[in-house]
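Quick log. Single chain, no ligands specified.
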Amino acid sequence: MLFSSPEFIFAFLPVTLIVYFLLSSSQKVEASRLWLLVASLFFYGWWNPANLILIGVSMIFNFTFGNLIIRHRKKWLLTVGVSANLAVLFYYKYANFFLTNFNGLFEGHYALLNVVLPLGVSFFTFTQIAYLVDSSQGKVGNYKFSHYCLFVTFFPHLIAGPIVHHTQLMPQFADQKNAFLNFPNLARGFFIFNLGLAKKIIVADTLSTIVAKGYGDTAALTTVQAWVTSLAYSTQLYFDFSGYSDMAIGLGLLFNIDFPLNFNSPYKSKNIQEFWRRWHITLSQFLRDYIYIPLGGNRKGEWGTASNLMITFILGGIWHGAGWTFIFWGFLHGAALVIHRQFTRLNLRMADWLGVVLTFLYVNVTWVFFRAPSWRSAIDLLKAMVGKGVQTSDVSLVSDYYMAPIWIAAAVLLFTKNTNELGAEFKPDYRRLATLIIVVMLNLLFLNSATNQEFLYFDF
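-> predicted structure:
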């Protein structure tokens, strides 16, 4: 059940909201929370009911181990708990990658496993690893199991984030006043949700046709087509994932829950460090707090800092997918951060506009490895981008005249106020009501489009 699907928008969401607030208005706050938990489990089980077993066992295990860690404060308990979570992640995401590489290196003949990646497994695993680590540091309160389950499964963030921390979410669920209808939050949440929906189904899904054509045969691209392909993917990925995050934030507000910011106009960044403070912010914070800082952060000199950055971002690449292209993508970003640190130590400066252009171009090139289905495809696309592609091509990437409004809209949206800024200043006045009506009407036009597809981060 996609956030952008009619069954979610016109059935699941209104029923969940109405029952939730009816229960809370009848002073049945605990019942309203249980209803939200049941609804979230139903939402997750919609794709594959068998996945409910996995997430159920995961929550029972982590809640139990969290309590054991709090009670006994033994380091080996934390090691076992984190290792078990990583083992589950390895099995579902990396076992076949490992077998494929083992067979290739040692001429082995091990059959690949028949594994289907459960939706959201990376997100709910990282969320619970953070919970275990915080349990060992005395940062976890005395939570009920049902409250813990609601924290993990709350449907707006369950599938593709934002990666939420228990200290961000559980106190909000415990606050009694958040269980009752709040019209300003309802209006602002509906506004932000529709802006995110527009980013997804109008911009991202439309550009997906260009991306699919270009990456479908990278060896047949001209230079212009290669640049169109790469730029289309950079734009598609941003509008798709930030659109999902906007919808999650909007949905949270409908239930009076504030989610952390996940995107903050990352393509306006003047350097690569700033980019990672603006892109997928909750993942960046997780990598910083639970990998980079425990490794020593910047406390071990320049070589130690460089090593810690490289390890952190290579692991970030591995988290995104089981493939050497993802690992190399992480390596490129780690290397860029190391170079940036040296650049700033020399106290050299460049014009802000030049920093934005160079940062975007670098990120755009690295996205090629993130998206390409193989090394060969990535190299072919990059060669075409530097003028070594074919001279003519049958791939009609720039002749689709109907795409022009989408490119214009994307360019405008990238460099104007983002959804977070618009949401923060939202007031239910006539001007914003008119804007919302226009956005809703456009969303309804695009809602049943043939290009409407799953969110890109569902695969991570």
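Residues 48-153 form one domain.
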